[in-house]
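// run 5 | inverse folding | seed 20
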Protein backbone atom coordinates (compact mmCIF):
# COMPACT_ATOMS: atom_id res chain seq x y z
CA UNK A 1 0.00 0.00 0.00
CA UNK A 2 1.24 3.45 -0.83
CA UNK A 3 0.41 6.38 1.42
CA UNK A 4 0.79 9.68 -0.34
CA UNK A 5 2.27 12.67 1.44
CA UNK A 6 2.54 16.24 0.35
CA UNK A 7 5.62 18.39 0.71
CA UNK A 8 3.86 20.07 3.64
CA UNK A 9 3.33 16.68 5.33
CA UNK A 10 7.01 15.86 4.94
CA UNK A 11 8.07 19.25 6.26
CA UNK A 12 5.79 18.86 9.29
CA UNK A 13 7.26 15.46 10.16
CA UNK A 14 10.82 16.75 9.81
CA UNK A 15 9.99 19.77 11.98
CA UNK A 16 8.73 17.44 14.72
CA UNK A 17 11.85 15.26 14.49
CA UNK A 18 14.10 18.32 14.83
CA UNK A 19 12.00 19.63 17.75
CA UNK A 20 12.41 16.31 19.56
CA UNK A 21 16.14 16.34 18.86
CA UNK A 22 16.51 19.60 20.78
CA UNK A 23 15.78 17.61 23.94
CA UNK A 24 18.33 14.83 23.38
CA UNK A 25 20.44 14.60 26.55
CA UNK A 26 24.20 14.83 26.46
CA UNK A 27 26.18 11.61 26.59
CA UNK A 28 26.93 10.32 30.10
CA UNK A 29 30.42 10.89 31.48
CA UNK A 30 31.38 7.23 30.97
CA UNK A 31 30.99 7.49 27.18
CA UNK A 32 34.35 6.84 25.53
CA UNK A 33 34.58 8.33 22.03
CA UNK A 34 38.16 7.23 21.33
CA UNK A 35 38.69 5.03 18.25
CA UNK A 36 38.47 1.35 19.16
CA UNK A 37 40.12 -0.05 16.03
CA UNK A 38 43.07 1.52 14.19
CA UNK A 39 41.17 1.73 10.90
CA UNK A 40 37.64 1.59 9.56
CA UNK A 41 38.74 1.08 5.99
CA UNK A 42 37.82 4.64 5.07
CA UNK A 43 34.24 4.37 6.34
CA UNK A 44 33.28 7.56 8.16
CA UNK A 45 31.61 7.35 11.53
CA UNK A 46 32.09 7.64 15.26
CA UNK A 47 33.06 5.17 17.93
CA UNK A 48 31.02 5.13 21.12
CA UNK A 49 32.01 2.79 23.91
CA UNK A 50 30.14 2.50 27.19
CA UNK A 51 31.22 -1.08 27.81
CA UNK A 52 34.71 -0.52 29.17
CA UNK A 53 35.79 -3.45 26.97
CA UNK A 54 38.09 -3.52 23.98
CA UNK A 55 37.11 -4.69 20.51
CA UNK A 56 39.63 -7.50 20.87
CA UNK A 57 37.80 -8.77 23.97
CA UNK A 58 34.22 -8.55 22.74
CA UNK A 59 34.01 -7.62 19.07
CA UNK A 60 32.05 -4.55 17.96
CA UNK A 61 28.56 -3.53 16.91
CA UNK A 62 28.07 -1.73 13.61
CA UNK A 63 25.19 0.75 13.83
CA UNK A 64 23.64 2.15 10.64
CA UNK A 65 20.80 4.53 11.47
CA UNK A 66 17.38 4.22 9.90
CA UNK A 67 15.88 6.79 7.59
CA UNK A 68 18.21 6.11 4.71
CA UNK A 69 19.79 9.23 3.33
CA UNK A 70 16.77 11.43 4.00
CA UNK A 71 17.45 12.73 7.48
CA UNK A 72 19.47 12.09 10.60
CA UNK A 73 20.08 13.78 13.91
CA UNK A 74 23.74 13.24 14.90
CA UNK A 75 23.28 13.89 18.64
CA UNK A 76 20.43 11.38 18.82
CA UNK A 77 22.37 8.83 16.77
CA UNK A 78 25.35 9.11 19.13
CA UNK A 79 23.04 8.54 22.13
CA UNK A 80 21.51 5.49 20.46
CA UNK A 81 25.02 4.14 19.82
CA UNK A 82 25.84 4.71 23.51
CA UNK A 83 22.75 2.78 24.57
CA UNK A 84 23.58 -0.04 22.13
CA UNK A 85 27.05 -0.24 23.67
CA UNK A 86 25.57 -0.39 27.16
CA UNK A 87 23.07 -3.08 26.14
CA UNK A 88 25.51 -5.28 24.22
CA UNK A 89 28.64 -4.78 26.30
CA UNK A 90 30.56 -3.94 23.11
CA UNK A 91 31.97 -0.83 21.47
CA UNK A 92 29.71 0.56 18.74
CA UNK A 93 30.72 2.13 15.43
CA UNK A 94 27.98 4.47 14.20
CA UNK A 95 28.30 4.84 10.43
CA UNK A 96 28.05 8.42 9.17
CA UNK A 97 26.15 8.59 5.91
CA UNK A 98 24.29 11.87 5.82
CA UNK A 99 24.50 12.44 2.09
CA UNK A 100 23.33 10.36 -0.81
CA UNK A 101 26.36 8.70 -2.43
CA UNK A 102 27.17 9.99 -5.87
CA UNK A 103 28.02 7.86 -8.85
CA UNK A 104 31.52 8.08 -10.17
CA UNK A 105 31.67 8.20 -13.93
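// decoded
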Amino acid sequence: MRISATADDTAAVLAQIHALAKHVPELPDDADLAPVLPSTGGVRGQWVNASGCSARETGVVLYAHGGGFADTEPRAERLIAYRLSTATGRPVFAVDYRLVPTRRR
